[in-house]
What we know:
Structural class of chain B: alpha/beta
Strand content of chain B: 15-25%
Largest sheet of chain A: 8 strands, mixed
Shape of chain B: globular
Distance between the termini of chain B: 26 Å
Number of helices of chain B: 11
Pfam families (chain A): FeeM
Protein name (chain A): GNAT family N-acetyltransferase
Oligomer: heterodimer
Radius of gyration of chain A: 20 Å
Largest sheet of chain B: 7 strands, mixed
Helix content of chain B: 40-55%
Strand order of the largest sheet of chain B: 3-2-1-4-5-7-6
Shape of chain A: globular
GO molecular function (chain A): acyltransferase activity, transferring groups other than amino-acyl groups
CATH class of chain B: Alpha Beta
Largest interface: A-B, 17 and 19 residues
CATH topology of chain A: Aminopeptidase
InterPro entries (chain A): Acyl_CoA_acyltransferase, FeeM_cat, GNAT_dom
Keywords (chain A): Transferase
Number of helices of chain A: 11
Low-confidence stretches of chain A: 1-26
CATH superfamily of chain B: Vaccinia Virus protein VP39
Amino acid sequence: MLQNQSVLARLGRKPRVHSEHDRLSRRQPWLEACLPAALYRRLFIRRLARQPLAIEGFSFRPVQNLFELEQALRLVNESYARRGIGTVCRAGMRFSPFHLLPGTTTFVALKDGRVVGTVSLIEDSALGLPLEDVHINEAVLQRLGGVRVAEVGTLAVCSRYKGKGVPLMLYNAMFRWAIDHRKVSTLVIAVHPRAASFYRNVLFFSPIGPVQAYTKLNNALSLPLAVNLARARDVFAKAYSAPGLKFTVDQTCTDLFDFFCSRHYPHIQLPAAQARWSADDVLTHMARCGTSPHHLSPRVRRALQLD
Amino acid sequence: MDTGLLRAIYREITLRQPFVRTPEPDLVMVDETCVSAYADSAGQGQALSGTYLYHCAQMCALIKPGDVVLDIGCGPASLLLQLARLNPRAEFIGADLSTSMLEVGRESIRQQGIDNVELREEDMTRLAGIADRSVDVVISSMALHHLADLSQLEATFRNIARVLRNDRAIYLNDFGRLKSVESVDYFVSRASDGADQATLLDYRNSLLAAFSREEFQTLAASYLGPCAKVYSTAVSPLMMVVRTPKRRCVAAMKDEFRRRYRSLPRSRQADVDQLRLFLGMGGMASAF
Lengths: 307, 288
C-alpha cells in the first residue's frame, strides 16, 4: 500500500485512501446548505419529476440467502473503496458481525438476478449500533430514551445504476419494513455532512450531535441524524400535500407521502419473516471473509452464538 | 453558615501535621451487615448516589468505545453498572477481594441484564489475574483506603502502571486524610441525615484510614507518569482524585447527567454541589 501511494504521489495524484483528511469534505455544498428546506424539497422533486425513477425490471427485498448477503457486502466494499472511505480487502468484502445478527435486515435491489444496490437496517442489540464507534453519546442517549432504535447503514449502489432512484426505492422498502414489521420507533443514521441536506430536508431527519471524524472510514466526517417514525408520517403528509410536489413513478402520479406511506409497489417484496443465519452460515461467511471465530472478541462471539 | 464548618476550616488551615492513620478495622468488607449497608448506600437517592453521579460523569470522559476498563475495589459494582450502561461498547472488569460484595454485584448484573461487566476476585496489591498492558482505563472509587499500609498502596500503584497500556487513562478517587479527628467527626455528622448507623461508622473509619495527599502525590508521580495529576478538595483534602486528561468529549451527555442530578433528593444534590465547588476550587472542572 505504501509503495502504491508513493507511485501515485510521483504521478502527481493524491492517494484516495489512507489520506490524512477526508477527501469528501473538499467539496462543500454551501449553496445546498443555504437553501431553505421547502425550496430544497421543491428542487429535489422537480429533479425527480424530470428524470423518472427507472424501476422497471428491478425488485427490492430483504436478502434471502447467504449468497445475496455476500453480494451486497461486496458491493459495499467496492463502493466504499471508490468513495475513498475504505480499502478493497482481499476477500472482496469485510466481515461485519452486525449484518449477521437476527435484528439486522439487509435490503437489496436486484436486477436480472444481480445485486445492484443495498442498504441495511440494524436494530439495537447486545453489540449496540455501528455508529456507536464514533457517536457514542448520541447512541446512549437514544437508548436511554427507552425507544426501539435502529440504524440505517451501509448504503451502496452499483455505479452503473447511479442516478436512477435505486436508493429511494431501497429506503421505501426499508421504511415500510421498519414501521410495519419491526415496530422501530426511531431511526438513526450517520451521514457525511455533504449528504445531510437530503436527509434533513426531504426525509425530515434532525441532527442529534456534533460532526465527528469516523475513524474506521478513513476519518470521513460524519453527522448523526435521527427521525421519529411515529411522527414522520404526519410530517410527511403535511409537507408533501402541496399540489406542486408531484412526480411520476411507474407511470402514476405520486407525491413523497404517497410514495413512502400508502401506495403499494409490486417491485417491493417484503416477506413475513426475514432470513436467519445458522451457526453454519456464520462460519461459512467468516471463512469466505478470511477470518475465524477466534479473531472475534468474546462479546461478538456471544452475540453470534458461536460459543 | 454553621460554626462547626468554620472551626473545621480553621483547624485544617492552622494544624501542621495530619493525624496518625488508623487502618480500617476490617480490611476486606465481608461482614454481612456491612456489605448490605454499603450496597444499599449506592442506590437511587441513597447516601453515595450524589458522589457516584459526580465521579461517573468524570469517568465517562476517559472511556472510549472498545476500551477495557478495570475497576479496582469495585465492591457491589454499583458505580460500575452505571458506567457500563453509559458505555456499552467498553468492556468492564471489576476486581474486589470480598466475595460477598462480588456476590451482591453479580446478582445486580443478572437483574439488570448487563453483559459487558465481569467481576473477579482479585487482590488489588497484586492484580495477579490481569495481564501486563491489557487495560486501557483504570478506575477506582473509595477503595484505596482499605489497604493496610503505605507499602500496599505502593504495590497497588505499581500494579496499576503494569496493567495499563501505553495510552493510559486513570481515575482514582478516595478520601484524603484530614488534620484532626474533630474535623472527621464534623464531616461525619454533616452526612448523618438519611444515613443509617452502619454507613456512618463505615464513613468515619474510612476517613480515619485515608492516605494523605502527599502520599498520593509522591506515588502517582513515581508510578503513574507525568499525565496523572492529583486533585483534592480545596481547604482540606476530604476527597482526592488522581486523574489523567480527558480522552472523549461528553458535552452531549451533559443533559442526561443534569437530569439525573435533578432527580436526586435535595441532600444528595448538595453532595454533588459541594464536590463541584470544592474540587473545582482544587482545580478539577466538573463534567456537567
